[in-house]
Amino acid sequence: MANIGLGLAALGRPGYINLGHSDDLNNKHSISAMRNNAFATLDAAWKLGIRYFDVARSYGRAEEFLGSWIRTRDISPDQVTVGSKWGYTYTAAWQVQTPPGVKHEVKRHELPVLQSQFSGTIKNLGTHLHLYQIHSATMNSGVLENQEVLAFLNRIRKTGIRVGLSVSGPEQSETIEKAISVNIDGVPLFSSVQATWNLLERSAGPTLAKASRQGLTVIVKEGVANGRLTIKNQTPEFANQFRLLKRVAAEYESTIDAISLAAALNQPWANIVLSGAANIDHLKSNVAAQELRWSSAIAEKLESLIEPPQQYWATRSQMPWN
Ligand SMILES: NC(=O)c1ccc[n+]([C@@H]2O[C@H](COP(=O)([O-])OP(=O)(O)OC[C@H]3O[C@@H](n4cnc5c(N)ncnc54)[C@H](OP(=O)(O)O)[C@@H]3O)[C@@H](O)[C@H]2O)c1
């Protein structure tokens, strides 16, 4: 079974697309309130045995919170694994909602962005940085063909920091295939891939299995579909799927989120499954996924939840920042 990691996308900034994000933070958005909540959630994660943490330059102060938590708790680099990402710049100025025309984050996969974001990441995380990923590489961003970016990433790799990528959208599989083929001086550049896989959107599964066979570490994100696979999802269009999930969760004395994460944890190709919890209760509920004894019988009961990828990603793109 894979291990659970903690992602800080919802912990490092006041606005995010996860369902009910604002309520989960008790609408406490000051920097100090968010730092306290992040530290408390990180402490709980550590106690629960979580040793993998995922951040990105664009997750507000997530890198800074994680770096200072690691230092104040005196955690050495060999006790923990930290992955961060470059490519998006945070532009929301610590607001839950941005003014019309202003984005929350801006994506640019170019060498100057990589160079300046890498120094920012090192400033925050120092020798605790184990993995540096391209944030949401896509086929049309051209990043996997940008020779100067690839050469810089290769220099990072040669310092002992592993290099990976995260992917999103209906073309995750094509992008992973392309990444697997990137070699520099006969050596594969990427040693990990982070992708969305959950009970609703499983299309990347076969390609993630191939990546795993080729030796890449596979990290699963959005295992509860940004909150859509939790008790919070009361949207009428999801009512039938919700009933099914509730029934199966009750049958196995579990919860919707734990069943959903257990599905990901039990994929043979998965190494790490991220929890995106923004508070301790949800984190504990997510971690209970490890206790569930997975079986083909449970998997069969949940088979009908699969959505066509285009539909899944169209719904995700409509999720409001909150
Ligand atoms: N492109 C990329 O590279 C990329 C994209 C997205 C995510 N990620 C990484 O993956 C991590 C996880 O993804 P994610 O947070 O976007 O999606 P997720 O894990 O699918 O969803 C997390 C959401 O589910 C909610 N939730 C979990 N358990 C719950 C429970 N028991 N009851 C009610 N609500 C519950 C959380 O609520 P609370 O907030 O209240 O806990 C949060 O709103 C992120 O933190 C980030 O590190 C990477």
Describe this structure in words.
This protein has 322 residues and is of the alpha/beta class. The chain has one domain (3-317): Alpha-Beta Barrel (TIM Barrel), CATH 3.20.20.100. It contains twelve helices and twelve strands. It has helices spanning 21-24, 31-47, 62-72, 111-125, 147-158, 172-180, 205-213, 239-251, 256-265, 280-287, 296-301, 309-317, and strands at residues 3-7, 52-54, 81-86, 88-90, 105-107, 129-137, 162-167, 183-184, 187-188, 192-196, 217-221, 272-275. The strands form three sheets. It has an eight-stranded parallel barrel, surrounded by six helices. A hairpin with a 2-residue loop joins β8 (183-184) and β9. α6 (172-180) packs parallel to α7 (205-213). The longest helix is centred in the first third of the chain and has 17 residues, at 31-47. The mean pLDDT is 96. NADP nicotinamide-adenine-dinucleotide phosphate (NAP) binds at residues 7-10, 18-19, 21, 24, 54, 85, 135-136, 166, 168, 194, 221-227, 230-232, 257, 274, 276-279, 282, 285-286.
CATH T-level fold name: TIM Barrel
The largest β sheet comes out as: 8 strands, parallel, barrel
Mean pLDDT: 96
Report low-confidence residues grouped into runs of 5 or more: none
What kind of oligomer do you see? Answer: single chain
